[in-house]
Amino acid sequence: MSRVLNGNTNISERTRDKVMEIVKQYNYVPNTLAKGLASSRTYTVGFCYDYTEKQAVSNPFFQMVLQGVEDVVYRRNFLFLMMSMQRDQLDASSFAKVVTERRVDGVLVPTQLFTEAVHSLLLREGMPFVVVGEPMFAQPGIHWVDIDNVQAAMALTRRLIDRGLGQIGIVYDEADKTKDKFVLDRIEGYRRAMGEAGLQAKEATLERLRGMSGNGCGGASQALIFSTESLLLDWLDEADEHPPADSIHLATFDRSPYHRHIKYGVESIEIELETMGIEAADMLFALIEKTELAQPYIKIPAK
């Protein structure tokens, strides 16, 4: 019975169905604490988040990643623990306490929170971990899962080019370039697609764009790609004061349900955030179970 309930794949479908029928008949619920005492495991995995980012937990993209993670965790009959952390207060965080006291078997850490101090803590405690998003610094032994943001940006830019648009600019936040690898990758993908088409790349920060006329990056643009959806929304908040030209095409990443409420048309590309959560959780369980991985990272292509 334990092998079936623990998700062991070396069980025939006939045996699995029979065990699950008995479980349902007697309303059996395994005792996680007793299991943990017997195996020196907690049967719990943790996910770290920045509690200073008040909107992070309610962000629909955050929720999609979590949905993928939880699908894997609960399918394996594990518990799921959310842990808070502030970047500059690691020692006082619940994350550090949970890791040092071995209250989980492994952790998932968003790339924005994965600092060298966090990395050192995880290595020192021998805690299996996977970074959700490509880290800003690369070292051997770091496992991570991310969207292929270079490919996503190339695909989005090519789509606009195929529509006959040649004056395409990209907008980013300067601060994001120092802490978010995915923003750097999206800018790189945009540059590659523009270069392949023999077109001039035009780049601007949001602050610089606000001071420009013609709704463009260094002149009138037929289309603007925003490196994040939040940047696009910030710009549109000012649309009543400085409305974009009717002819301009707006584009961003992360196909969001919010886009249908925007009066200006928004082109977007679908990125598999739920798949990202699933792959990150699967990778973490492989590390917990000491299963050999083909490679230390996974890049998920956008559609």
TrEMBL record:
One Gene Ontology term of the molecular function aspect: DNA-binding transcription factor activity
Signal peptide, first to last residue: none
Record-annotated HTH lacI-type domain positions: 1-39
Transmembrane feature ranges: none
Keyword line: DNA-binding, Transcription, Transcription regulation
Gene3D superfamilies: 3.40.50.2300, lambda repressor-like DNA-binding domains (1.10.260.40)
SUPFAM superfamilies named among the record's database cross-references: lambda repressor-like DNA-binding domains (SSF47413), Periplasmic binding protein-like I (SSF53822)
Pfam families xref list: LacI (PF00356), Peripla_BP_1 (PF00532)
Protein name: LacI family transcriptional regulator
Native organism: Cohnella fermenti
